[in-house]
């Protein structure tokens, strides 16, 4: 129940904000291109008088003006649906993700990371192998003798077959 109310309120807020921004942009566009104020009744009356007097569309500019007027409600509905489907949390954290992606690209090309107090190691694998070898305990001679005897018995048993 509350989820539906929240969605309805969210959709309303998005619709109000989108309508305001869209109307400002459309009004600016129409005024700058055709000197037509979309929000003024005087401009609409001028168009009505033009049609009532038998006005004819002659140029491509007139066709573009009519196409622009016809597309206004379609673009308004499409924009409202588009913005209603957006995830606004991702929009709010976009600066952080953009900076993170920038740093990943910047540091991706570096071949090694040198820590200030540790120094840079040329071949980390060899150093680690040497450390492992130094840690291994030495095997007593008795263990090696026992292994040789077992290996000899296995070899002699396989030779008999």
Helix content class = over 70%
Rg measurement, Å: 39 Å
Strand elements, count: 0
Give the SSE order as H and E letters: HHHHHHH
3D structure, described in words:
- The protein is mainly α and 161 residues long.
- Helices cover 76% and strands 0% of the residues.
- α1 packs antiparallel against α3.
- It is rod-shaped, with a radius of gyration of 39 Å.
- The relative contact order is 0.05.
- The mean pLDDT is 85.
In short:
The chain is mainly alpha-helical and 161 residues long. It has helices spanning 2-34, 41-52, 60-84, 88-92, 94-108, 124-135, 141-160.
Topology diagram in text:
Elements: H1 2-34, H2 41-52, H3 60-84, H4 88-92, H5 94-108, H6 124-135, H7 141-160
Helix pairs in contact: 1-3
Features:
rod-shaped
């Amino acid at each position: 129940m509350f989820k539906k109310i929240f969605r309805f309120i969210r959709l309303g807020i998005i619709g109000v904000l989108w309508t305001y921004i869209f109307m400002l942009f459309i009004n600016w566009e129409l005024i700058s291109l055709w000197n037509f104020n979309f929000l003024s009744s005087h401009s609409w009356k001028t168009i009505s008088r033009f049609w009532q007097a038998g006005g004819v569309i002659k140029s491509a500019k007139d066709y573009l003006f009519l196409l622009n007027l016809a597309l206004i409600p379609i673009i308004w509905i499409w924009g409202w649906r588009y913005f209603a489907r957006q995830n606004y949390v991702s929009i709010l954290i976009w600066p952080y993700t953009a900076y993170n992606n920038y740093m990943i690209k910047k540091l991706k090309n570096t071949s090694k990371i040198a820590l200030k107090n540790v120094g840079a190691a040329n071949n980390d694998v060899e150093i680690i192998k040497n450390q492992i070898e130094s840690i291994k305990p030495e095997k007593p001679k008795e263990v090696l003798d026992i292994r040789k005897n077992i290996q000899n018995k296995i070899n002699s048993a396989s030779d008999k077959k």
